[in-house]
């Protein structure tokens, strides 16, 4: 597993990554086949989103606090905010048009 | 402005490639990617789309003329936003440089989609453009350097991720073989 921006955050990052990966590996294949109807997909997605929050929410908050501080300390916060403003990327980019 | 585009298939099913995405680094071919941090992540409770925003920290020596002209150091940071949509089996990853972004932008877009049961298509495009009205020659030289660097790294990415996927799923199959 790779390191964090800040050595101090690396143990939290690794715990969080491990938590996410465990959740994601159990999520992906059932999610692919859960697309029978939009209602079924919604129910499945709600359950899984809640499960992710239950499993990884606590470690995520700890890791995020650490990494936010590291981003600011490295002077990356203004660059990140500029990039977010230029392109929020809140929705997946449409097919066949890489540039939004 | 320069464009870069490539297509190829990985010999792994889509779900394996998308699980593997999170294990891509570190790998021996891409030692320039040193740090990875998630700065935002959400699972859409309606669509099931997983959105992840990360900052990648890279260390790769820049030629002396670049350091002289633009300053900076060997540390460069990239913002990456990915969307994984299980309902359409599409993963898209968009990246833009944070470092030296006042001079040039490298905007990369990757899409993974199933080619068949056991193959996944990788489609990568990039637009590389220097921003400043430097005198023309220097700005062309900068773009050409960035294009070369991008193409080298794109090749390393393919080699590295192929290794990671092979090892990941070989181990997995061995473990399954043992437990069966």
From TrEMBL, chain A:
One of its GO terms (biological process) is phospholipid translocation. Signal peptide: none annotated. GO terms for cellular component: cytosol; mitochondrial intermembrane space; nucleus. Residues 91-100 have a biased composition (Pro residues). InterPro entries: MDM35_apoptosis (IPR007918). Coiled coil: none annotated. One of its GO terms (molecular function) is phosphatidic acid transfer activity. Pfam families: UPF0203. Keywords: Disulfide bond. Belongs to the TRIAP1/MDM35 family. PANTHER family: TP53-REGULATED INHIBITOR OF APOPTOSIS 1 (PTHR46403). This is Transporter.
TrEMBL record, chain B:
Transmembrane segments: none annotated. This is PRELI/MSF1 domain-containing protein. Pfam families: PRELI. It comes from the Eukaryota. GO terms for cellular component: mitochondrial intermembrane space. Residues 1-173 form the PRELI/MSF1 domain. Signal peptide: none annotated. InterPro entries: PRELI/MSF1_dom, Slowmo/Ups.
